[in-house]
Amino acid sequence: xxxxxxxxxxxxxxxxxxxxxxxxxxxxxxxxxxxxxxxxxxxxxxxxxxxxxxxxxxxxxxxxxxxxxxxxxxxxxxxxxxxxxxxxxxxxxxxxxxxxxxxxx
Length: 105
Prior knowledge:
By secondary structure, the protein is mainly α. The chain has a domain at 75-104. Helices cover 32% and strands 7% of the residues. It contains three helices and two strands; from the N terminus they run H-H-E-E-H. The chain has helices spanning 22-26, 28-50, 99-104, and strands spanning 75-78, 95-97. Strands 1-2 form a two-stranded antiparallel ribbon. The longest helix has 23 residues, at 28-50. The protein starts with 21 loop residues before the first helix and ends with a helix.
C-alpha cells in the first residue's frame, strides 16, 4: 500500500505550485472598491464636521452717500477716478463735454 506523501494531492497527483487563478485575483476587486468607498465616506464626514462655520454677526452698517450735480449741461467725457477709490474734497470726478459751451468761448 502506498501512503500518500506530503507532496501529493488527495487524488494522487503530484503537488504542483500554481499561480493564483484569475477568479481569486478578481475576487479582491469588489472588496477594494468597497474599501475605497468606505474610506471616502469617512474622509468626507470628517471634513464636513471640522470645516469652519461661517461667522454670522448682526449689526448695522452706516454708508455715506453723496448726490452730486453739475452746474452745466453736457455729456460725460471722462471719469478720471475708479469705483471705490478714495478722493479728496475738490477732486475732479467727471469731465463733462458740451460742444455748445465750447462754441461760446
